[in-house]
Amino acid sequence: MGYLYIVSAILLWSSLGVVVRLSGVPVHVLIFYSNGISVLILSVLLAKKKYRLEFLKGNTGYLLFLGPLTLLNTSSFFYAFKNTTIANAIFTHYIAPVVVAFLAPLFLRERLTLRVLFSIAVASAGLWILLGMNLGELLTCWKEPDRDTVGILSGLFSGVTYAFLIIAVRVYAQRYNPLVLCLAQNIVISLILMPFVRVFPVDALWSFIIVGVVHSTIAPVLYFRGMSEVSATRTAILGYIEPVGAIIFAVIFLKEYPEGGAVLGGALIILSGYMTLKEKKHS
Questions:
Q1: Does the predicted model carry a pTM greater than 0.85?
Q2: Domain count, the chain
Q3: Does 167 have pLDDT greater than 90?
């Protein structure tokens, strides 16, 4: 049943890029109001005393840690959607399993094998092809980045922070009710963003509701619930459903077709993650 929860969450998240692109509002505004809607929904659901007591159970410091980490991941991912293609954002985001390979020996005491090192090299090659530039051009982009490159680098950063989330959520998902985890992270995110939001764009209300209900409430609750039963390795493998769904949504709603270089580079990145996860599965 845990697999079904995770697959359902990932399929819901795969539509996120289209909503972000069509919303027409700054990333922090979309995150703030959608999280506010989620907080209202979850507060009603968690009105019972037994759920309130869960905020005091176990390592409550983790609840404070989850919010900023999720915010870094979400904002950089949204920013990637805003500045590059859906395909580029998704493919760079899924460098995460390779990063997990480096984090696992530190947090999960797993071995770093030759297969994992090879998969990292494949991912690096995929990213290079995805960027589609030589070393001189890349250095120029660091100094004077164009919009597409900024989006790709944002997607890459979101993949790194997502890797930390995979490790953290797997460690703590069994300690808290998924509704409590989701509410705690969304409260912290809303408090962090509150000083930076001064307007309410009424025209974008539809996007706040969709993201708030679907992507900030239902999907993460399903994901947390699933990770209480499914290992981080298998969860990451299931995550590769998202790029397929995201590109399909982009083609349908945005008429955005991935270019050959993006497909090749992204395929190498996904292949590298699969190789890493396959090695971990057999270790």
A1: no
A2: 1
A3: no
